[in-house]
Amino acid sequence: MTKLKTAVIGVGSLGQHHARNFAEIAALNETEFVGVCDSNEKNARSIAEKNNCQFYTDWRELLDLTDAVSIVTPTEMHSEIACAFLEKGVNVLVEKPIARTLEEADLMIETAAKSGAKLMVGHLERFNPAMVALRPFVTTPLYFEIHRVSPFPNRSLDVDVVLDVMIHDLDAIQWLVDSKVSEIRAVGIPVISDKVDAANARIEFENGAVANITASRIGTEKIRKTRFYQTNSYVVLDYGTKFASVTSLAPNAIHPLLGISINRLEINDVEPLRAEIEAFLNCILKDETPPITAADGRRALSLALGVLDKIKAHRSRLNV
Ligand SMILES: NC(=O)c1ccc[n+]([C@@H]2O[C@H](COP(=O)([O-])OP(=O)(O)OC[C@H]3O[C@@H](n4cnc5c(N)ncnc54)[C@H](O)[C@@H]3O)[C@@H](O)[C@H]2O)c1
Known about the structure:
Elements: E1 4-9, H1 15-27, E2 31-37, H2 41-51, E3 54-56, E4 68-71, H3 78-87, E5 91-95, H4 102-115, E6 119-122, H5 129-134, E7 141-149, H6 161-176, E8 181-189, E9 198-205, E10 210-216, E11 223-230, E12 233-238, E13 243-249, E14 260-264, H7 272-285, H8 294-318
Parallel strand pairs: 1-2, 1-4, 2-3, 4-5, 5-6, 7-10
Antiparallel strand pairs: 7-11, 8-9, 9-10, 11-12, 12-13, 13-14
The protein binds nicotinamide-adenine-dinucleotide.
């Protein structure tokens, strides 16, 4: 069987890790890593040297050389580059958020549907080992308290904190709660950049579940923690330390205080990005639906844009 020819477009802070993983997978003789592309030649050359592959500065040169690509450029370029590859029948793993607008996302979805190429979105936290361990224990989440805080980054400043990082949690809650969003409330402010740097959203679902999410990129420490309550259990998930636990009352407990059991889940500590890229390649080889579809990416984007609309409305009331 001929090997899949892979490449990475955009090898900045995250794309370099895509490149390393594709190169490692190719070294196992499962795929052929054609090369990396970055419009910044210095970046392209240095990441190509590290991974012993070709470098390109114009992604169009890769259109006829590849079967599967990761697109890790700034979000504003996702749709144009993805559509060009999808039109050629090249399978695409695009970083989150899928695009800037729902129109761009729809164009990507239509283009993939026409050519039959796979389109997967990199909502990486679904591959975090703590989430992988926890997922089978999730039943009916009813109330989430979520914090995602980091010091100010020197990247992704083309988008606000909602599209940059809160979107991870907006994807996760919709994936875990089997119901439609019914109400969004949100506040947010620019503090250091000219875009929203800190935000809080309260998302309510038709089934009554509620998520309270705080995202900030002007913190003094790094926190990526989700806590939620579901019928008969309390769940803690820490993406940063890769920890997950489920606290519940032992079935035969004679007294609540004596019967509390904390199940600290066993974690299979693999690199989430490696798992994501392997899942992408597997869905191509097995001709299966990607584990994170473009519709999932669009759904997360749609909720993020809804949160941003509410933030805008709130700010106009505040007159700031
Ligand atoms: N899944 C996650 O957890 C996660 C984390 C970080 C970033 N991201 C996403 O990854 C994407 C990239 O983010 P980043 O932090 O690596 O940004 P970055 O700015 O560090 O890197 C982007 C790279 O793309 C290159 N580039 C720009 N235009 C290009 C073009 N037309 N052709 C080829 N290369 C081009 C830039 O030179 C740069 O090297 C964004 O969509 C971001 O939201 C996802």
